[in-house]
Amino acid sequence: MSEFFPEIGKIPYEGKDSKNALAFKYYNPDEIIDGKPMREHLKFALSWWHTMGGDGTDMFGVGTADKTWGQTAPEARAKAKVDAAFEIMDKLSIDYFCFHDRDLSPEYGSLAETNAKLDEIVDYIAEKMKADPSKKLLWGTAKAFDHPRYMHGAGTSPSADVFAYAAAQIKKAIDATIKLGGKGYVFWGGREGYETLLNTNYGLEQDNMARLLKLAVKYARSKGYDGDFYIEPKPKEPTKHQYDFDAATVLGFLKKYDLEKDFFLNIEANHATLAQHTFQHELRVARENGKFGSIDANQGDPLLGWDTDQFPTNIYDATLCMYEVIKAGGFTNGGLNFDAKARRGSFTPEDIFLSYIAGMDTFALGFKAARALIADGRLDKFVEDRYASWTTGIGKDIIDGKVGFEELEAYALEKGEVTDSLSSGRQELLEAIVNNVLFTL
Ligand code: XLS
Ligand code: CA
Ligand code: CA
Which of 85, 98, 131, 420 has a Cα at 20 to 30 A from 208? Predict the structure, then answer.
């Protein structure tokens, strides 16, 4: 089979002194760290939608990059996409991919025809995976938001017919995920939200969303699926108010509807910042609640209030992200999906590789920096000392449930003013320690 990128070979790891644009400076896939190769710690994934389909189209202009893969007929293009994707993954040493059903194969005249054509592509991918078992599916999902039928939502549509259609589509996407051995299935809100409460039955929409998720779990488990389900929080865009606003909102939803057993969170960096949180905040909320699942690695632009899905190049954020991942015990079923696209002006085939190299090197460096921060120990020690009052005396009694308000009042009356029990939060020192560790790597 002829190559799509004959001018680009397998991207080598050349180390930080290399000036070769088409080489990794920090990502050394086979470097063994704590007994396993870096590729298994990071579990990088290619996003089918941006990489294989995203041509730079935006609200102000047509595409700038050619993502036709040399084919005009949809069936042939879908197959060529598979071949090109496997070539990209291979050349970049990426082991995983993620898809929406309609990224793999578009809609045709009827649902039955669309499903049949999707089956053909899924079979084709399964064959490729059989020939090269190093390529794996990280997660699958359904594009239940782009067609006009989903203009008012899918699971939260006012139309029960639309709900049924979405369920049928998701059923098929779950089948594809299972067939390709995926260990994750993502629900990102899409158009599950509202534009105005004046026309919205908020309570029914939330109940129906939960109904859809329960039906999905029931179906997938009945087919032997033992992977995770993820919800991917996002506060806005496309709707003004997305129901899965942020990690904390989703946790409340999962609890209310008794969905905690099956669902974890897929945290996207750009969605965190749109919710006015840091990426690390969202990861911390997920981890502290035992719900850390997977990551969509990208970054937004602090000057823009929309989802720019840029390739991540911010080492500081990547470091604090990997710090949370390591503290969460690393990835199990999840991984690092590059839900990211090269800028519209970065339109050449080579830019696909250059942007992934930038993102992968950023996370490899972030991983090493996070490990160094933990090994350095100063941050952890500081936090431990800061909360030392909870390990003995009255703090321990509170935690052990040994005291009530009366005892606490007696303690406070006896103790007198307590301002002196506080010590400095030392934020500047801690930020300097992070810099110190980062720049001595
Ligand atoms: C959009 C989301 C989407 C999900 C998958 O903002 O990031 O791409 O990751 O549906
Ligand atoms: Ca995403
Ligand atoms: Ca996004």
Answer: 98
